[in-house]
Amino acid sequence: MPDGSDQPTNTDEENPFAIDFSVAHPARVQSYLAGGESYFTADRDATEQMAAVLPSGVETARDVLRAVGAFVRRSVRYLAGEAGVRQFLNIGAAPPGRKQVHHVVQETVPDARFVYVSDDPVVLAESHALRRGSPESVIAYVHGTLHDLPTILERAADTLALAEPVAVLLVTTLNFVPDDSDPHAIVAQLVRAVAPGSHLVVAHPSFDISAEGMPEASARLNQTLNVPWVVRSRDEIARFFDGLDMVEPGLVPIDEWRPDGGNPPPPTGRRVTPIFGGVGRKR
């Protein structure tokens, strides 16, 4: 694990690869929850402060992360299998885990192509290491955020054929884009840039799904992360799919989106994951 006790002063705002060790970053928080090594003291402390208000502490937060991962795996298997998508653009990628999106897809489509986008230098450094042994023409990593959409699309075009269908993954990504940045306009621009037959995957937290500790945990995240943490209503999340055909079962709690075995897990005895998820197809 990078040692947060040693605090280099490389925080020059003009250097996009500078790391501010004093503030938590969403991707590194996810790494801590996933049992990874890509985090610093500030990321661990922010996670534990947030989790302190959840029913079972950090374990509840880890359950949420596991539910998000399961949703991603189910959605990309659908996209690679039933929908026939061969290209994937994952914006807001977390640190490499044991099984990234390309690992899941390549089980079905070995020659699929991928572009991962993140603004965390630690994520990119580990991702480049993970890519060793894979052809550069198949997997690429871009430094940026949704605010850098023109650059992302330009760089992605080196690996992806944007004239052909692409699956765009915005999984717990839009909740870091505040309303004054007009995230719906950004997503609309992104959808316009991809070909018909492309798909949009969104997972976004919402207070419309009642979950114990969610409001307090969200407030703490908003205070400690290096970016805003935004929770939206189901209607606001549904607007990201404007003009797209929703894949069944539509926009639902992520636990209910095409669960393995065909039936959602029983709610009794478990906390519902307070995140809506859905997949839309561009005509």
Question: What's the arrangement of secondary structure elements?
Answer:
Layout (H helix, E strand, L loop, with lengths): L25 H8 L7 H11 L6 H23 L6 E5 L9 H6 L6 E6 L2 H11 L7 E5 L5 H8 L10 E5 L11 H11 L5 E7 L8 H11 L9 H5 L6 E2 L5 E2 L21 E7 L2
Parallel strand pairs: 1-2, 1-4, 2-3, 4-5
Antiparallel strand pairs: 5-8, 6-8, 7-8
Helix pairs in contact: 1-2, 2-3, 2-8
Overview features:
single chain, alpha/beta, Rossmann fold, eight-stranded mixed sheet, 9 helices, globular, disordered N terminus
In words, what does this structure look like?
- α1 packs across α2, α2 (41-51) packs across α3 (58-80) and α2 runs antiparallel to α8 (214-224).
- The termini are far apart.
- It is globular, with a radius of gyration of 18 Å.
- The protein has a single domain, classed as Vaccinia Virus protein VP39 (Rossmann fold, 3-Layer(aba) Sandwich).
- The chain has helices at residues 26-33, 41-51, 58-80, 101-106, 121-131, 149-156, 183-193, 214-224, 234-238; strands spanning 87-91, 113-118, 139-143, 167-171, 199-205, 245-246, 252-253, 275-281.
- β1, α4 and β2 (113-118) form a beta-alpha-beta unit.
- It is built from 9 helices and 8 strands.
- Strands 1, 2, 3, 4, 5, 6, 7 and 8 form an 8-stranded mixed β-sheet that branches.
- It has 283 residues and is of the alpha/beta class.
- Residues 1-12 have low confidence and may be disordered.
